[in-house]
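Fill in residues.
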């Protein structure tokens, strides 16, 4: 970009930032319960683990993906109104995110940035699609059709389906390194074995399909104005919540019976598909419920507290890894071995409250989180993007 005009921040939709902050909160609590993956080295039964995974497991990722697709629409629409085709620049933006994810993935094998960046490239060619095609494509991924086809092909060809998914054995070796390895060994593991285990899990669990579908769905929801302050679809929020909440309850109660009927041989692939669909409906109910609470004055005041975290989600997400991985892993304090699920859960809540305070403190003084500013500057290849708020000296 050759213009010398300074790029200034634009007005943000607080609801979207607050929902992203909620997803970030859920992801952080899951990570604390998982000891940033080391929990799976020696799993221990815990009511806190059950509650956390029930509320956020697989759902926080899905909400992030939904908002990622929505952000794509907001950016593209803003640039289109200025007469700019931003697809090339957005592709470069995704490349930067992918590079950041690769660096972050060396420290934390469960990095989501790489997944969001790679699935984000699918948004570029679908940008000009008609709405009915977007809905069809999103449904293809959200209903786990790729996994269903894979399962049916194996069954029709009478191929033996392994008793356990491949990622179980791949992750077992990785988790042992996290628990007992040196920093160098963790880095070396994450460069290949950890990345292979993560991507295998992402494919086998159906999470890659869900994230892809939610990104496309988020783009479509942006196009139809679903999240606008005066959305024409506002009267759909309550029916949407009631339908998805009732369907979630039915699926949760009937899940064991459904699994026994359509999966008598207990194929793990079938169970993965069922779990993904249940999580998907629960995610929709969560989003509808969040929006409804936000329409209520008191609810808006409370939920808006999460907005600063949503605005600087990239910085917060990466910062968490740099702090808590050395805390939990064997090369650091090894807290996975002595903290326990109960303390980790409550510590996570206390530390999240601290992060909310820090985010409010930061956003009062700066327009962006530090990594958000770097990402934006690298996107435009400029350093004069306004960062510090002018009223702070």
């Amino acid at each position: 970009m050759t213009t010398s005009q300074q790029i200034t921040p634009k007005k943000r939709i607080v609801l979207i930032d607050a929902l992203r902050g909620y997803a970030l909160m859920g992801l952080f609590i899951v990570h604390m319960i998982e000891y940033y993956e080391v929990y799976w080295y020696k799993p221990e039964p815990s009511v806190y683990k059950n509650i956390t995974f029930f509320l956020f497991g697989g759902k926080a990722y899905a909400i992030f993906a939904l908002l990622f697709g929505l952000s794509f629409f907001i950016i593209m629409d803003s640039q289109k109104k200025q007469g700019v085709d931003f697809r090339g620049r957005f592709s470069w933006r995704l490349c930067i995110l992918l590079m950041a994810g690769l660096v972050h993935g060396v420290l934390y094998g469960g990095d989501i940035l790489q997944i969001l960046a790679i699935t984000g490239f699918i948004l570029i060619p679908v940008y000009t699609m008609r709405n009915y095609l977007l809905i069809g494509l999103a449904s293809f991924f959200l209903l786990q059709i790729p996994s269903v086809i894979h399962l049916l092909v194996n069954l029709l060809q009478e191929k033996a389906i392994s008793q356990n998914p491949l990622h179980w054995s791949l992750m077992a070796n990785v988790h042992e390194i996290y628990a007992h390895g040196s920093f160098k060994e963790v880095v070396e593991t994450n460069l290949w074995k950890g990345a292979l285990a993560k991507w295998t899990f992402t494919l086998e669990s159906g999470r890659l399909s869900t994230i892809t579908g939610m990104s496309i769905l988020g783009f479509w929801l942006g196009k139809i104005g679903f999240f606008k302050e005066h959305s024409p679809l506002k009267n759909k929020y309550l029916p949407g919540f009631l339908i998805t909440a009732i369907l979630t309850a039915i699926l949760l109660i009937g899940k064991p019976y459904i699994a026994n009927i359509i999966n008598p041989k207990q194929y793990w692939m079938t169970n993965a598909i069922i779990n993904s669909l249940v999580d998907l409906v629960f995610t929709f109910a969560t989003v509808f419920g969040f929006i409804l609470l936000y329409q209520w004055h008191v609810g808006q005041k409370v939920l808006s507290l999460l907005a600063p975290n949503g605005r600087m989600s990239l910085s917060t997400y990466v910062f968490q890894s740099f702090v808590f991985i050395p805390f939990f892993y064997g090369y650091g304090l090894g807290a996975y071995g002595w903290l326990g699920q109960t303390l980790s859960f409550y510590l996570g809540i206390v530390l999240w409250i601290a992060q909310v305070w820090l985010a409010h403190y930061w956003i009062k003084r700066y327009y962006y989180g530090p990594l958000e500013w770097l990402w934006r500057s690298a996107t435009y290849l400029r350093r004069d993007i306004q960062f510090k708020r002018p009223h702070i000296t």
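The mean pLDDT is 91.
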